[in-house]
Every structure is written in C-alpha cells, then in structure tokens.
Write a structure and sequence with these properties.
Layout (H helix, E strand, L loop, with lengths): L3 E5 L2 H17 L5 E5 L6 H9 L7 E5 L1 E3 L10 H13 L6 E2 L7 H9 L5 E5 L21 E4 L2 H10 L12 E4 L2 H5 L3 E6 L5 H8 L19 E6 H4 L1
Parallel strand pairs: 1-10, 2-3, 2-6, 3-5, 6-9, 9-10
Antiparallel strand pairs: 4-8, 7-8
Helix pairs in contact: 1-2, 2-3
Amino acid sequence: MATELRRFRDPAELGAALAAEILERYEASEGPYLLGCPGGRSLRSTYRALVGWRPRLDRLVVVMMDEYVGAPPDAHFSCVRFAREEIAGPLGIPSERVWLPDERDPKAYDARIAAAGGIDLFLLASGASDGHVAFNPPGSARNGRTAILKLARTTRRDNLATFPGFASVDDVPDRGVSVGLGTISAARSLRLVLHGADKREAAARLLALDRFDPSWPASVVHEHADALILADEEALA
C-alpha cells in the first residue's frame, strides 16, 4: 500500500511541521526517546526548527544512521561532526546520548538499539539519483541490519552536493558503516523528507511505487504501518 504523502510550501514549512510532531511524540512518551537521524541536507530545516522551540530534551537519544569508514571526527564530511554541530550541540544533548554505528563492531548497534527499547521515530531522506537510504544502495535487502557497506558510485556522486568540500566523486569515501533497511523498518514510525528541485526524480520514482522495490531503497517506507512522505512543492513540481 502506498505511503501517505503530505505536501508543504517549502522546506521551512515542512521542517516546522515535522519538528512539531517530534516534540509532540517526545512529550507523550516516557523514558528514553530514540530519534533516528540522518546527516546531510534534507533534515536541516527540521533540526533548525526543533532548535527554535528551545525544548528541554533530557530523555532524547540521537541515533545517527551511518558514518564513513575511517572518517576523522572533525572531517567536513564526518557524521560525528554533523551530529555535534547541527543536532546535539544546538539542542544541548550530551555526547553520551548521541549514538553512531561502530565500524569495528557494526552488529552491536542493532543490539544497543534493541536493548534501549527500539527507535521511536526514524527520520529519513532519499538519495537524489538512486534512492539510497543511509548508505544502503540499490539492491539492498529489506531485512538488512547494520553493516559495513560499499557505497554505490551514484551515492558518492549525490554526496558531492551534500559535502561541497569534496573536489570530485573520487574524493568521496567508498565505504561506510550503516544501519540496514531492517534496522530502519523496525522503528515504530518513519518520516521520509523530500524537498528541493534536485529531489524531483527521487520523489517521482518513490511516488510511482506502492510497495518495496529493492532498486529504490527509499521505498521501504511503503512496507511500514506508520510511515509518511513529506515533500515540498519544488520536489513535487
């Protein structure tokens, strides 16, 4: 069954609506609240809107979805750095409540998430040209778990726009440690964000499907009982 689509005027309106939902769900919860978070451009408007509320989030755990293998923590493309500068720092969340998968023991990440009660809400974005989610490339298994993956060249090309510090696609690391589609699907709720003209192809491809298609990993949302696609007018034009 196709996932419900919600339309917004622009990234700011989308981000404000999603941030409000995150806070509503957080406030209705008890105990640790695990929020699955991607790095990159798509969720920036949501993170900024969330910061604007100046909430007290002393139970929030930021569960980052991936990291480049061997990335120095202060590299311009590091997900550790992104989490610190774009999410945890502005929200006042201490480092012990910011989780990332460990390339030395990828399987431990799923065990850690399960031990904490599972991810409450996973925020997602779709690769512009190949529908990758986290580092899961086309052809990924729906039940995959956290592992070290070889990045598709299309994914690395997409990352040139995300991280302008890369001079060429050959500068983008070719391996990453990433949650799998099974890790994502196990979350209680999924919210996939698409905005901007560069996501038109991704939006069209995703909305043309009504079930999971391994050639477009973002379509995993179509198999989840509580998933939404949030897109702005530019992405849907």
